[in-house]
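dumping this here so i dont lose it
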């Protein structure tokens, strides 16, 4: 892999080189530090597989460099690297034609090799899927003609890439450049260039043979004789500037290019035929021929070396003696495809004499001309290592997807049972094991207990309890290290809880500690019913999964602890409020029980009137504390057995303000302030302390006002006897629209069962 790395920070460049060399030891990395150095290097070296460029450069930017690479039509992939916070710019680079991008964040170098390999593969696939663009050098000085040609080709022939030169000196310099044939497929030249003899230029280009690029001449009407002269000199074709010539132009350019290409191919074919035998003899790839019965007709020395047979023995064999077709294919289908289509491309699985399974990529073709009987020519190369690398990349991607899925499960649910069930499902499937279990540590009693399991045939494992240090799991948790037992049958010491896994048939065991915030919180145990021989990547992934499990468990436990603390705090709040309420009732023996009664009835009213459960919490607190302001009223007034004087009423009516001053500084009680402050306001605006009117009075206070008056009137007081229910109902109906909200009165009468509930 040959890479140009554009990075002005030597430290970042060195880190990238180390990361690439670790996983791709054959990589060749050229490092430059500026935009201009990169441009110069790309014009000198055209065989890079990939350009890796920083988004921000001292004298330019990565997107401009990307545009330059595409303008040069270099067959290399481009990956841009951005700093953290520049993701939007990096996405813009993708829209501009970049094959991928990376963000310089933690551990991004770990994904660098895979990202670059994938970018190269995608780019090569894209080049293979799309026809090679036709690169045209256009010599024209009329701006209008240039613009028309560009727009027409962009709309009707996007496969044509136009490079315009519009001054005679530049045109002459470009056309006589010996490297122009490497950059352009065809030259489109206007005949009427001022100060330039076009025919002499064509003669010099073609007859001197300094390059081999077809030339198409654009002439004005009436200049056909000049075009004929150009053809005689060696021009490929011409087109006359008539009203419809732009529609002829794409096809004419294509035809000229293909004719020139055919001439080159014929010359190359003649040369290749003379070199073919030498190529076959010295090729590193397997090259052989066979007939339609599978008999090997010829084979090169590489065939013997790669297959492990003597060349003489290969010539006595049939194709399917050493080549096993891709799974599901039959030899007859292989031959049938060749007879039908002239080829049958795919993968061959080659069984070597040693029994090793190798994967081969091959090309074949049916040859019928010039031979007595049809023969099939095969060219194959061993791609086992490449396929293994692809499988490894696919596995890594799959494992990353697994980690993302586990992350999503952790974020989406704080139910530890759901999270652990999802986690163990991924563990067993991605690690390819039969069963897995999670044991959680109970710190206070230093024991491990079953929390979740998957893949067990029986239920005995759910009863598992271990002390720290007991059996394998206890040792894992105590010593905080991984334990592996390839064969439980011969393990020393033996698995002491084998009775819990009886009839499970487990052979191999792995135990790994679950550590969160430096503390062991449990153990992940893996069981398999055949011998496990994992590679280092498998073990790394196991440790990674254990880390994810620890995060999930710690998050769920933290959430449970927080919920428990919040619940305890809420209980403490409510207990405090109820204590205050009881203290008020004790102060005034005559109203004992009043607070709880009005609170319960107020909540029933709130439910009927559609107040949300969340708001009912505040309403309940307000009802319990409705007379908290009376703590500021002297006993001589509050407990007076007879009617109050005007001066005493003035003091008594200050208790809503006292309630406001007491409750407002307490943040969690502030939403409950409506009832203590406003329950003495009246619907007609004659109430106190603020004289609010109608719906300006908070709904909670309007509800409570009816309930408070109801309970007061049906209760005995030192200065009067309790009213009858009939009298109270009648009074409340009379006060609808005066003291009380009429809608609240209707709801109250309906709730209390008054038969005559019209307000």
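and the seq i came up w/
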């Amino acid at each position: 892999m040959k890479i140009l790395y554009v990075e002005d920070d030597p430290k970042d460049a060195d880190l990238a080189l180390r990361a690439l060399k670790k996983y791709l030891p054959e990589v060749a990395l050229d490092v430059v530090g500026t935009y201009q150095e990169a441009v110069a290097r790309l014009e000198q070296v055209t065989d890079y597989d990939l350009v890796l460029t920083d988004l921000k450069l001292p004298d330019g930017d990565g997107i401009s460099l990307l545009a330059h690479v595409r303008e040069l039509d270099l067959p290399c992939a481009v990956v841009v690297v951005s700093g953290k916070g520049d993701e939007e710019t990096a996405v813009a680079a993708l829209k501009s034609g970049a094959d991928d991008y990376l963000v310089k964040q933690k551990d991004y170098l770990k994904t660098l090799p895979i990202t670059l390999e994938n970018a190269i593969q995608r780019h090569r696939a894209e080049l293979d899927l799309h026809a090679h663009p036709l690169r045209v050098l256009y010599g024209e000085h009329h701006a209008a003609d240039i613009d028309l040609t560009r727009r027409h080709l962009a709309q009707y022939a996007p496969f044509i890439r136009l490079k315009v030169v519009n001054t005679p000196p530049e045109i002459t310099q470009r056309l006589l450049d010996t490297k122009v044939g490497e950059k352009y497929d065809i030259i489109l030249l206007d005949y009427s260039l001022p100060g330039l003899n076009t025919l002499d230029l064509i003669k010099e280009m073609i007859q001197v043979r300094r390059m081999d690029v077809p030339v198409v001449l654009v002439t004005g009407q009436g200049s056909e004789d000049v075009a004929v002269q150009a053809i005689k000199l060696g021009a490929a074709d011409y087109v006359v500037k008539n009203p419809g010539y732009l529609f002829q132009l794409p096809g004419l350019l294509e035809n000229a290019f293909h004719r020139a290409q055919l001439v080159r191919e014929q010359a190359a074919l003649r040369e290749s035929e003379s070199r073919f035998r030498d190529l076959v003899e010295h090729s590193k790839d397997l090259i052989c021929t066979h007939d339609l019965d599978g008999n090997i007709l010829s084979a090169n020395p590489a065939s013997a070396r790669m297959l492990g047979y003597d060349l003489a023995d290969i010539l006595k064999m049939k194709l399917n003696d050493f080549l096993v077709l891709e799974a599901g294919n039959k030899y007859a289908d292989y031959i049938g495809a060749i007879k039908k289509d002239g080829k049958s491309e795919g993968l061959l699985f080659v069984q070597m004499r040693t029994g090793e399974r190798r994967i081969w990529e091959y090309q074949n073709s049916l040859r019928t001309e010039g031979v007595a009987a049809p023969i099939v020519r095969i060219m194959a190369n061993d791609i086992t290592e490449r396929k293994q690398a692809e499988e490894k990349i696919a596995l890594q991607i799959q494992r990353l997807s697994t980690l993302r899925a586990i992350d999503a499960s952790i974020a989406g649910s704080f139910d530890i049972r759901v999270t652990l069930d999802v986690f163990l499902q991924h563990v067993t499937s991605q690690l390819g094991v039969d069963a897995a279990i999670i044991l959680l540590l109970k710190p206070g009693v230093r024991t491990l207990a079953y929390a979740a399991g998957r893949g067990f045939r029986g239920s005995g494992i759910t009863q598992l309890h271990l002390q720290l240090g007991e059996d394998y799991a206890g040792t894992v948790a105590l010593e905080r290290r991984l334990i592996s037992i390839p064969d439980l049958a011969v393990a020393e010491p033996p698995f002491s809880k084998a009775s819990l896994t009886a009839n499970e048939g487990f052979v191999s065991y792995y135990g790994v500690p679950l550590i969160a915030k430096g503390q062991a919180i449990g153990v992940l145990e893996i069981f398999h019913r055949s011998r496990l021989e994992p590679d280092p990547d498998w073990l790394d992934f196991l440790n990674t999964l254990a880390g994810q499990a620890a995060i999930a468990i710690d998050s769920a436990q933290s959430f449970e602890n927080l919920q428990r603390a919040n619940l305890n705090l809420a209980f403490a709040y409510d207990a405090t409020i109820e204590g205050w309420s009881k203290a008020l009732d004790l102060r005034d023996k005559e109203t004992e029980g009043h607070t709880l009664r009005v609170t319960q009835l107020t909540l029933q009213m709130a439910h009927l009137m559609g107040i949300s459960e969340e708001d009912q919490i505040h309403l309940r607190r307000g009802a319990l504390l409705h007379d908290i302001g009376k703590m500021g009223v002297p006993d001589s007034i509050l407990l007076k057995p007879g009617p109050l004087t005007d001066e005493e009423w003035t003091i008594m009516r200050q208790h809503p303000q006292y309630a406001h001053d007491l409750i407002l500084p307490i943040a969690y009680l502030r939403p409950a302030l409506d009832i203590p402050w406003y329950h003495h306001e009246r619907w007609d605006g004659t109430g106190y302390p603020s004289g609010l009117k109608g719906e300006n009075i908070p709904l909670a206070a309007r509800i409570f006002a009816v309930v408070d008056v109801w309970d007061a009137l049906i209760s005995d007081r030192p200065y009067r006897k309790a009213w009858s229910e009939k009298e109270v109902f009648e009074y409340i109906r009379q006060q609808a629209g005066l003291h009380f909200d009429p809608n609240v009165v209707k709801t109250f009468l309906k709730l209390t069962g008054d038969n005559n509930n019209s307000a």
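The chain has five domains: 2-129, 134-266, 283-382, 390-552, 588-752.
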